[in-house]
Write a sequence for this structure.
């Protein structure tokens, strides 16, 4: 990097470096020492929960408001996203909104075009984050989240949530080993769950979603002409639950669906649709305000329009033709 772009001039975030070192080194050892199929299952379950916490919670709900939901649902999604290891919600949302404003231009927090692949992929999280600048970042790009005390609480208690999950994963593995495993001891299964469900799952989710910032701005195809190098990358779309259809997303940022063509399967959109469909009967009995997801902003690429699916009774359908900006 050039001198004027020496992002480490004011220091590094040693707690973040230490945290990342642990979650990258420990799984290599533990997964070799404690292999088990139940451990792999714990990985798959937590990969789904925490991965969707990022793609649905942090991204499509908190950042872009691509659908409406009760506050308690927003809080649950925020905790799910936090447990991915990608930072507290206000931090994630503020940086992501800034990314969209300056996508692949000077000011983009993580661009492989203005910087390089590895900076965009993960190095951008390591520079020292001074509280004054961080507060200014939050105030400018995530003022709506700053006003919510619960999100402030998550900011202060971030690492304790991970310790809590670690204890739960260990306890679940121990219980499984004690009552259901004939091949291994309770302590072995506890460590297997920790290895696969906590550590390996975390690095998997981190790199899968980080690839949206790096790989999906370098490799793939475009459905739309945008002002940046965002691309649709099928591999990233599979690993990150539909987030890899990145060119589509940059063209219609508030759309709940990132897949616009029939072959662009979007797991996150399917899950949001399930939330909306399964909770829709609440509307029939006068409990519509308790629906898990409604007012889905769906982009119809054939018409070039954003439409509202599952509206409330008095809602008017959105008829705005998107220009690709928030």
């Amino acid at each position: 990097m050039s001198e004027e772009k020496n992002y480490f001039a004011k220091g590094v975030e040693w707690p973040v470096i230490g945290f990342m070192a642990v979650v990258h080194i420990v799984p290599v050892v533990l997964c070799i020492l404690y292999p088990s199929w139940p451990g792999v299952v714990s990985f798959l379950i937590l990969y789904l929960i925490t991965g969707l916490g990022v793609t649905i919670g942090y991204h499509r709900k908190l950042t872009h408001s691509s659908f409406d939901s009760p506050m308690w649902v927003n809080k649950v999604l925020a905790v799910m996203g936090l447990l991915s290891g990608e930072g507290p919600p206000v931090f994630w949302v503020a940086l992501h909104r800034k990314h969209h404003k300056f996508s692949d231009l000077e000011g983009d927090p993580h661009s492989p075009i203005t910087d390089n692949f590895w900076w965009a992929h993960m190095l951008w999280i390591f520079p020292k984050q001074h509280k004054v600048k961080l507060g200014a970042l939050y105030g400018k790009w995530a003022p709506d989240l700053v006003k919510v005390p619960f999100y402030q609480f998550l900011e202060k208690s971030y690492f304790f949530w991970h310790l809590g999950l670690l204890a739960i994963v260990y306890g679940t593995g121990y219980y499984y080993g004690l009552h259901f495993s004939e091949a291994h001891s309770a302590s072995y299964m506890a460590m297997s769950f920790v290895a696969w469900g906590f550590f390996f799952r975390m690095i998997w989710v981190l790199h899968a979603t980080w690839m949206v910032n790096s790989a999906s701005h370098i490799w793939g195809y475009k459905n739309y002409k945008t002002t940046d190098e965002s691309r649709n990358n099928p591999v990233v779309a599979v690993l990150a639950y539909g987030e890899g259809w990145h060119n589509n997303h940059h063209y219609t940022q508030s759309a709940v669906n990132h897949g616009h063509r029939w072959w662009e399967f979007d797991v996150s959109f399917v899950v949001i649709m399930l939330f909306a469909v399964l909770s829709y009967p609440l509307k029939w009995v006068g409990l519509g305000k308790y629906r898990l997801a409604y007012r889905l902003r769906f982009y119809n690429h054939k018409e070039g329009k954003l439409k509202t699916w599952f509206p409330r009774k008095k809602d008017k359908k959105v008829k705005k033709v998107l220009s690709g900006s928030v």
